[in-house]
Amino acid sequence: MQMVDFPAPPLPGCRAAPVRGVRAGQAFEGTDWVAEEVPVAFEYNGVSHAVMLASPSDLEDFACGFSLTEGIVDRLAQIRDIEVLPGAQGWTLRIRVAEACFARLKDRRRSLAGRTGCGLCGADSLEQAIRPLPVVQPPAAFAAPAVARALAGLRDKQHLRDATGATHAAAWCNPQGDILLLREDLGRHNALDKLIGALQRGGVDAASGFVVVTSRASYEMVHKTAVAGVALLAAVSGVTSLAVDAAETAGLGLLGFARGQDLTIYSHPERIALPPTA
User: Fold this and answer.
1) What is the largest CA-CA distance in the chain?
2) Could you tell me if 262 and 178 lie in one domain?
3) How far apart are CA 215 and CA 16, in angstroms?
4) For residues 51 and 91, what is the distance between their CA atoms, to the nearest angstrom?
5) Per the structure, how many domains does the chain have?
6) Which of 190, 202, 224, 242 sits 20 to 30 Å CA-CA off 182?
7) Domain range for 79
8) For residues 57 and 133, what is the distance between their CA atoms, to the nearest angstrom?
9) Per the domain annotation, does 278 fall within a domain?
10) Secondary structure (DSSP) of 93-147
């Protein structure tokens, strides 16, 4: 039997796993790298709120992005402190928020037990599931070639995916299509929350660029992008009907099947400048 050892992972978030299989018609055994999946508990002012399954990286970004996109805080300054605590069963994010935010959270508190890639887990009413959307203030239209350039550069920056083949990515790009920030996670929503948290913590003018994601675009992805103030979301895969409706309401340009030079516009076509018609 052929012995195969896979390259060492380029960054944390992986662990070794013994494997056997068939490659090119030959049986093999060796060691592969798998993406770590851990419970991440969110506590606000000492009260447990949610448990998500996620990649154990960029957890302060996750805390900030989740708090903003879930409407627990309205702005980063309302987060007073974040403690990232490892434990035997996972990680705990102890987040202290302004008292007014915590009082509001208690008023609408819900039980949210997350799963990988979960969007609306635990919403106990239709009002909680479909929340009001902010209307983004768009910049000038982004050029279609800039979206294509961002997509072309996306794969080279997905280091955790390269090591494991198991993660999604969300990236923020400038108008020229340069990827300036990227976050990875097992869940597409988590990756976007981490990206939004990183944008906020870095003081980036998120509205000046656009977001690309390595997944489909559902309602929740559109909602999070709009909360971040970004006017264009490009998804590698398809979109959902609720995502289209939400994007129309929020003034957000929604692109699906953005691959290579190709893309499909589902809402606000004025947000993207297309090449001239032949």
Assistant:
1) 64
2) yes
3) 26
4) 10
5) 3
6) 242
7) 38-116
8) 28
9) no
10) EEEEE-HHHHHHHHHT---EE--TT-SSTT--SHHHHS---PPP---SPEEHHHH
Banded pLDDT at 113 (limits 50, 70, 90):
very low
Same domain (yes/no): 102, 195: no
93 in the same domain as 180: no
Cα dihedral 124, 129, 134, 136 sign: positive
The residue length of the chain stands at 278
Distance, CA of 193 to CA of 185 (rounded, Å): 10
Structure tokens at 254: 């929604």
Q: Rounded CA gap, 86 and 200, in Å? A: 24
pLDDT in tens, 221-255: 999 999 999 999 999 999 999 999 999 999 999 99
Q: Indicate whether 129 belongs to any domain.
A: no
Residues of the chain with pLDDT > 70, as a percent, come to: 88
- Same domain membership, residue 191 and residue 82: no
Q: Is residue 137 part of a domain?
A: no
